[in-house]
Specification:
By secondary structure, the chain is an alpha/beta fold. Helices cover 37% and strands 25% of the residues.
């Protein structure tokens, strides 16, 4: 799946993630394969419970995998790592969590919340440099240095999410996993947060893995999009290509659910509910196939001919 012209930052290869309810196993992610290139925003889209966050948490080593491999550059990061390698991964891969209230320590000041990574990794020479870095991080997300002495509960949801972004940015990572970073925010604040993240991408050469269920947001923000359903990544394509030529039926159903900014059209449109075919229920025998340039679809051997006809009609 590699594009030889671009540096691969993260590679997820044949990854399975299994949880246990007592002794009963539940496979939340099945044979996931994708790459995140340096400097891009990679979108991961699917409905609630599809496995999006589970994959993101596996990349930052909060979830163990039961099969496959996860690589960060030339370092395999699933499984046990030395202290030095663990610190290297944490320093370079940060996460913005979905719930800004739950991800911040309510008993700690904003100063400590943002400085925690600096303390843990000794990323400052003296107290003066630490304070300067915190002030710069707060300014960069539109907050004031005097906010340092406050506690998370004294802020609105949008302000708390900005604190979460500042906490990730102060580590100067290469990759940020943004797990539904705007779903808990007011509509008026969402664009501000997305523009802020885009600004950091341009200024610092950041890469993002952007996890969401809202396709209209991902279309604006992501360079490439992977669609996940029931733990299976069913389609991967550049954003423009995915919206123009969705090939998998589940992607079709997701795109149909995006509201159209015309009340009359929206009122009269019919949404077809996605129903798994027999082939889709046996995806343990399926693989991602590049059916168009950089456009991958999960299919069984029996489905290949049908997808090839669809692709030929688009050329």
């Amino acid at each position: 799946m590699a594009n030889n012209d671009r540096e691969v930052l993260v590679k997820v290869k044949n990854v399975d993630i299994t949880f246990f309810n007592g002794k009963r196993p539940f496979k939340a992610v099945k044979n996931a394969n994708f790459e995140i290139y340096k400097g891009e925003t990679f979108g991961l889209v699917g409905e609630s419970g599809s496995g999006k966050t589970t994959i993101g948490r596996a990349i930052i080593r909060l979830n163990q995998i039961s099969g496959g491999e996860i690589w960060y550059k030339d370092l395999r990061i699933d499984g046990k790592l030395s202290k030095k390698d663990r610190q290297y991964v944490v320093r370079n891969i940060q996460m913005i969590f979905q719930d800004p209230a739950a991800s911040l320590n309510e008993r700690a000041t904003i100063d400590y919340c943002i400085s925690e990574g600096l303390y843990n990794f000794h990323l400052y020479k003296d107290e003066e440099e630490r304070v300067r870095k915190v002030d710069e991080a707060l300014n960069s997300v539109g907050l004031l240095p005097e906010h340092k002495s406050r506690y998370p509960h004294e802020f609105s949801g949008g302000q708390r999410q900005r604190v979460g972004i500042a906490r990730a940015m102060i580590m100067e990572p290469e990759l940020i996993i943004a797990d539904e970073p705007i779903s808990a925010l007011d509509v008026s604040i969402r664009a501000q947060v997305l523009n802020l993240m885009n600004k950091f991408k341009e200024e610092r050469g950041l890469s993002y893995m952007f996890i969401a269920h809202d396709l209209s947001v991902v279309r604006y923000f992501a360079d490439r999009i992977a669609v996940i359903h029931n733990g299976n990544i069913v389609e991967i394509a550049p954003s423009v290509e995915l919206f123009r030529n969705p090939l998998h039926p589940y992607t079709h159903s997701l795109l149909q659910a995006v509201p159209i900014p015309d009340p009359q059209i929206e009122k009269n449109k019919t949404i077809q509910q996605y129903v798994e075919t027999e082939a889709e229920q046996n995806y343990d025998k399926a693989e991602l196939v590049e059916i168009l340039p950089e456009h991958f679809v999960l299919m069984t051997e029996n489905e290949r001919e049908g997808y090839e006809r669809k692709a030929a009609a688009l050329k």
